Amino acid sequence: MRALAIISGRVERLAGRLLLFAPLCLGLGIGAYFRLPVEPALRDWLVILFAALVLAYGGLRLMRGRLAGIGILGLGLATVLAGVLVAGLRSEVVRAPVLTFRYYGPVE
């Protein structure tokens, strides 16, 4: 418990500059999405969404207590997962049809 208090205190000292870390966390999530070896299935997307919501809720709850810094870290992790979700959503929106066979000849 002492280690959590130390980490929390150090993170709380950054309280005025935490908004600057939001794009960093979002970018880390986007980068993590593009490092995935395969496209996640629907079940995986739902697990990521649920984990992001739980981390965000837990982070907000912890921010009201003595370990506010740990809550801030939870919100940061939720933002990373949100980056993964945003990148996946954008990839789905711009997906183009792909030929399933070889085609030789002029393209009309």
Low-confidence stretches: none
Averaged pLDDT, please? 89
What order do the helices and strands follow?
HHHH
Helix content: 55-70%
Q: Helices and strands: which structural class?
A: mainly alpha
Strand content: under 5%
Q: Radius of gyration from the CA trace?
A: 19 Å
- Total count of strands: 0
- SS element count, helices: 4
For the record, the count of structural domains works out to 1
The N- and C-terminal alpha carbons lie at a distance of 67 Å
Shape: elongated
Main sheet properties: none
Question: What distinguishing features does this structure have?
Answer:
single chain, 108 residues, mainly alpha, 4 helices, 67% helix
Walkthrough of the structure:
This protein is mostly helical. It has one domain (2-93). The protein is 67% helix and 0% strand. The chain is built from 4 helices and no strands. The chain has helices at residues 2-12, 21-34, 42-62, 68-93. Helix 1 (2-12) crosses helix 4, helix 2 crosses helix 4 and helix 3 (42-62) runs antiparallel to helix 4. The chain starts with a helix and ends in a 15-residue tail after the last helix.
